[in-house]
Design brief:
mainly beta, eight-stranded mixed sheet, eight-stranded antiparallel sheet, about 5% helix, globular, disordered N terminus
């Protein structure tokens, strides 16, 4: 159970409106690729980076290329063209589960993912992009996006359907920050450690352990044990002229 503070940002200035297996791709998914993190001179999943504790490129499997061995078990997942290479095509029946892992319970955090949703959760429900149960997660509803840590930071916005969107959140031990398409949209003072997680483990594209599953495409998911800088988040979203 997370305590939730809702923050309504001035999205107009940021370009936002304030308002496996054998599965077939859902109708209406755009297959155009979005920009990738091409500004970096290192691999997207760099196993030499000790701060990278989870990296799922979803190239036809749930392999974690961070070197930490946090592979996801995939059920009812198909694949098609994504941001870079392939992306996971998810339905309400899909399950991408990672067991409880100590490396996915860092004191500080960066969580990044590309999503291309085709269905929003029903009223009162939320969908997880990544949820390490009782520790942290990144979620969206029909009208919000939330970065959850030891409390929750929620920005009011409606994600575009059938379009790639880069979502990220960071926590440095005192501040939670939420980013949409490389732009910081909300921050919150949140002193204290992240939760330790539990035996439910983590879920990609879902709200652990049995909440709403994401319907659409998921690609290029990373978890770091440190807060990435605004410039790094901006670059990961494929933006130019980052701060």
């Amino acid at each position: 159970m997370y305590r939730c503070l809702v923050v309504t940002s001035l999205f107009g200035a940021c370009g936002f409106s304030a308002t496996s297996n054998g599965a077939s791709p859902p109708d209406g998914i755009a297959v155009d690729s979005a920009p990738s993190d091409t500004t970096l001179d290192v691999p997207f999943c760099d196993p030499t980076d000790a701060k990278l504790v989870g990296c799922w490129e979803l190239e036809g499997n749930g392999h974690d290329a961070s070197g930490d061995g946090n592979d996801a078990t995939m059920t009812s997942v198909a694949y098609q063209s994504g941001v870079t290479g392939m992306a996971a095509v998810l339905t309400a029946a899909s399950d991408l589960h990672i067991g409880a892992r100590a490396s996915l319970g860092p004191p500080h955090l960066s969580l990044e993912a590309w999503i291309n949703a085709t269905t929003l959760p029903a009223a009162g429900n939320r969908t997880g992009v990544f949820d390490n149960d009782s520790a942290y997660g990144l979620f969206y509803t029909a009208s919000t996006v939330t970065c959850a840590g030891n409390t929750a930071l929620t920005a009011t916005t409606t994600l575009p359907m059938g379009t790639w969107t880069h979502l990220a959140c960071t926590f440095d031990g005192s501040v939670l920050a939420l980013y949409i398409d490389g732009t910081s949209v909300a921050t919150l003072i949140s002193v204290g450690a992240l939760g330790p997680g539990n035996t439910q483990g983590a879920v990609l594209g879902g709200n652990a352990p049995t909440g709403d599953r994401m319907v659409g495409l998921l690609d290029q998911v990373r978890v770091f044990s440190e807060p990435r800088t605004p410039a790094q988040i901006c670059a990961a979203a494929g933006k130019q002229n980052c701060p």
